[in-house]
C-alpha cells in the first residue's frame, strides 16, 4: 500500500509547485540571467557616469579654485600662492589670516566683498573659514552673506588624503549641514601654520545627483517592462519545449519503485527528449536485472562473512584461522617466522553454570576485546569454538621473546576481574605456544605442538603459559611461564 501511494503521488500535475518544475526553474534561471546582465550593464553605466561626472566636477572645482585665488591676490597683494607641477594653485600663503580687521583697513574691502567678487566669477557661493584651536573650521564670511555653519570634511580614508593637512582638496564636504562638491584652498603662514581655508562650491550634492536619480528611475521602469516581456516569452517557450519532462519523470519514478511494466513515452522522438526517453527505456529494462544481481552479491558476501567469522565475538572462526595458518606456512620459507598460540579460558564452565549462558556469552565478548587490544596489526586472533581461541603472531626477530611477552600479557589481562550482570567474575587463561618453523612445518604439526604446550600449561596448574619443546611428548620438563 505504501509503494502504491508513493507511485501515485507523482502522477498528479499539481504535485510540484511551479517554481520547482523544470519549466519553472529554467524560466527563473533565464530571468535571473537577464536581470544579472541588465544589472551588470546598469552598474557599469552608473560607474562610467559617476566617474565621468566626478572628473567633470573635479575640473570645474579646480577652475573655481584658480579664479578664487586670482581674485584674492588682486585685492590682497601680500598674498602669495603655491602651485603643483601642473600649474594648479594648491595653497595661499599669507603672514596674517585673510579677512581680519587689519586686512580690511589696508585694502578697503571686507571679506564679504572679496568673496562676492570671486562668486561672480564662479557663479556659486564662496566661503572663508578660519581654523580654531580645537582644529575645527568655523565660518568668517561667505559671498551670499547668509548664515553658514561649520565646515566638515569626510574622513580621510574615503578620500585618500587628509583634509586637515595643509593640502588642496577637491571633493564633497558638508557646510552648515548641506553637502557640497567643493574645492578647498588652505591659507597658510610662511612657516607652514594653517590659518584657514577658502572654499568654493560647484553645487549641492542633491542637485548634482539629480540626473542620477532620473536615470535610475528610467532604468527601473525599463527593467520591469523587459522582465515582463521576457517572462511571458519564456513561459510559452519553456512550456512547449519541456512538456514531455513531467511524463518522463513519472516513468523514472515508476522505475525507482520497481514498477517497470509501463513503456516509456516519447521514444519515437529524434531530438534530445527522444534520446532521454530511450535511455530511460533501456534503464527500465535493466534495472530489475541489476537489482537482482546486487541482492545476490550482497547475500553472497553476507554468507561468506558468516562462514568465516564467529557470530558472537565477530572474530575469525576456525575455518578462517585454518586458511590463514595454511597461508602463513606456505609463505614461511620466503617470509618472516611466526608463532602459533592456543589458549582457553580457565573456570569458564563455572561461570556458564552459575550465571547462565547469557553471562557466558558476555564474558566471551569482553575477553575477546581484551585480547584484541594486545595484538599488533599484523597478528590474527580467532575463536576456534567454546572458550578456545588461537593466535597467529608475526615474529620477524626473536620469536620466542615476542611469544612469551604476549602470553604473559594474556595471562595478566585475563586474570583481571570482569563485571558481568552486577557480578565480579574471576577467570584465568592457559596458553600453549609453538614457534614456526622450529616446532612444525605444517599447519597440522604446529597446531599439535601448540595443543601439547596448552595441555602442559593446564597440567601445571592453569593461569600460565608453556612453550612447546619435544620433551613434552616424552614426559620431560616444559618451558613454562
Can you describe this structure?
This protein has 481 residues and is of the alpha+beta class. It folds into three domains: 44-212, Beta-Lactamase, CATH 3.30.450; 244-305, HAMP domain in histidine kinase (Helicase, Ruva Protein, domain 3, Orthogonal Bundle); 318-480, Alpha-Beta Plaits (2-Layer Sandwich). It is 51% helix and 20% strand. It has 14 helices and 16 strands. α2 crosses α4 (111-122) and α2 runs antiparallel to α7. The longest helix has 54 residues, at 22-75. It is elongated, with a radius of gyration of 49 Å. Mean pLDDT is 82; it is low at 1-14 and 156-163.
Category from helices, strands and their pairing? alpha+beta
Element order: H for helix, E for strand: HHEEHHEEEHEEEHHHHHEHHEEHEEEHEE
Mean pLDDT: 82
Quickly count the helices. 14
- Determine and state the CATH class of the largest domain: Alpha Beta
The rough form would be described as elongated
Helix content: 40-55%
How many individual β-strands?
16
For the largest beta-sheet, the strand count, sense and barrel status come to: 8 strands, mixed
In total, the number of domains comes to 3
- CA-CA gap between termini: 67 Å
Our Rg estimate from Cα atoms comes to 49 Å
